[in-house]
């Protein structure tokens, strides 16, 4: 019997020992997990899913400012799990959050990007940092403020002049010649005000970057001819000859009025900045290998310095502000040209040298016939014949 009791005792002792070892192992694992979490606390599953689903830059840090979770976009921007925050602005943001329980958003830069960071507690051991890229928003806001300031400045001159002239007319009521002279000046200022208003409306329309609503096949020569006709009287008043190059059988797909205005703006600028009794050349060319149609306007004017050429297409930018205002320029013409051409899938370039004049070249995709066009044209011709 003794051996049997020994077996029972052995089993009981072994079972108890196994339980004890199991308890020790479990407690050891719990202690290890506790130690690991104190060093690098795990992110709650719910928070992890939220961060992973974010389409913005977002990262979770622990109380030691170590990153423990990042969104996909934040990872693309170089934020890595396990690394300590490096940006001084973010470190300071977290320090303010710990000190006050809340913190105002922090502005900082990352290369060319302007960013705003916000931080909130999401658990006693985790902080969520959300980073917003405001570069484009601030650029647009700066453009809006600049545009309003420029428009206000441009409107102030003709409006002020008309107020002065109206007083002058009232004071010279007994002198018909002076009244006529003041009235002529007032009419010129009103025309300038109207031109500025129309240019602002045109720029607003083309600057959205939308393609014109109705694109039709147009002959490049017809666009140039109409633009020249609109400027012929203005050029004649200065004795400037508008010299037309040879005609080219080329078509583009576009909005007729928009393109005529764009080419007209180039011709108008050329006339405005050219000396009296000079020439302005307008030509059309095809670039066969590129399927490109070029419309070039060349003047014999004052030219544009190299350092000014990159800014010449900006709104209200003038190389010679005094001369532009005296000749009636609004400073919006070239900006309208640039946006109109871009909306038609083209580009506009400038070659210029002080004292040697300037050449502006519009490059547009050439429109080619296809079988559908030919069948449609043949059908219209047959209908006309009937």
Unreliable residue runs:
30-41, 321-327, 374-378
How many helices does DSSP assign?
12
The tally of beta strands, per DSSP, is 12
**End-to-end span in angstroms?**
128 Å
CATH topology of the largest domain: Heat Shock Protein 90
* Sequence of secondary-structure elements: HHEEHHEEEHHEHEEHEEHHHEEH
Q: Strands of the biggest beta sheet: in what spatial order?
A: 2-1-5-4-3
Q: Tell me the structural class.
A: alpha+beta
Q: Name the assembly state.
A: single chain
What CATH architecture label of the largest domain applies? 2-Layer Sandwich
User: What is the overall silhouette?
Assistant: elongated
CATH class of the largest domain: Alpha Beta
CATH homolog superfamily of the largest domain: Histidine kinase-like ATPase, C-terminal domain
Mean pLDDT: 79
Whole-number total of structural domains? 3
Rounded to an integer in angstroms, the radius of gyration calculated over CA atoms is 37 Å
Q: Could you describe the largest sheet, including whether it forms a barrel? A: 5 strands, antiparallel
Strand portion: 15-25%
The percentage helix is: 40-55%
């Amino acid at each position: 019997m003794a051996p049997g009791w020994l077996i029972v005792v052995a089993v009981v002792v072994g079972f108890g020992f196994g339980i004890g070892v199991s308890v020790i192992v479990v407690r050891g694992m719990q202690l290890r997990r506790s130690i690991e979490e104190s060093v690098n606390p795990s992110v709650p599953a719910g928070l992890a899913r939220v961060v992973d689903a974010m389409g913005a830059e977002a990262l979770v840090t622990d109380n030691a400012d170590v990153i423990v979770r990042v969104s996909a976009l934040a990872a693309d921007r170089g934020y890595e799990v396990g690394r300590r925050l490096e940006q001084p602005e973010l470190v300071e943001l977290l320090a303010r959050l710990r000190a006050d329980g809340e913190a105002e958003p922090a502005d900082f830069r990352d290369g060319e990007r302007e960013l705003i960071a916000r931080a909130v507690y999401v658990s006693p051991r985790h902080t969520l940092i959300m980073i917003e890229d405001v570069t484009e928003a601030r650029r647009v806001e700066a453009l809006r403020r600049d545009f309003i300031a420029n428009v206000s400045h441009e409107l102030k001159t003709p409006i002020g002049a008309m107020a002065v002239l109206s007083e002058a007319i009232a004071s010279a009521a007994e002198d018909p010649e002076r009244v006529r002279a003041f009235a002529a000046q007032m009419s010129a200022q009103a025309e300038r005000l109207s031109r500025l208003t129309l240019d602002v409306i045109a720029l607003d329309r083309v600057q959205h970057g939308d393609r014109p609503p109705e694109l039709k096949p147009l002959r490049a020569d017809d666009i140039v001819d109409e633009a020249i006709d609109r400027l012929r009287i203005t050029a004649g008043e200065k004795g400037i000859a508008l010299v037309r190059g040879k005609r080219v059988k080329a078509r583009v797909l576009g909005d007729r009025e928009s393109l005529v205005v764009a080419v007209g703006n180039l011709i108008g600028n050329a006339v405005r900045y050219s000396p009296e009794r000079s020439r302005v050349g307008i030509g059309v060319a095809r670039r066969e290998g590129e399927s490109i149609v070029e419309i070039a306007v060349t003047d014999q004017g004052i030219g544009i310095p190299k350092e000014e050429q990159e800014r010449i297409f900006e709104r209200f930018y003038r190389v010679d502000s005094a001369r532009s205002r005296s000749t009636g320029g609004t400073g919006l013409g070239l900006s309208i040209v640039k946006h109109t051409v871009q909306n038609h899938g083209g580009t506009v370039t400038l070659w210029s040298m002080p004292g040697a004049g300037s050449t502006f070249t519009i490059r547009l995709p050439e429109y080619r016939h296809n079988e559908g066009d030919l069948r449609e044209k043949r059908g219209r011709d047959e209908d006309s014949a009937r």
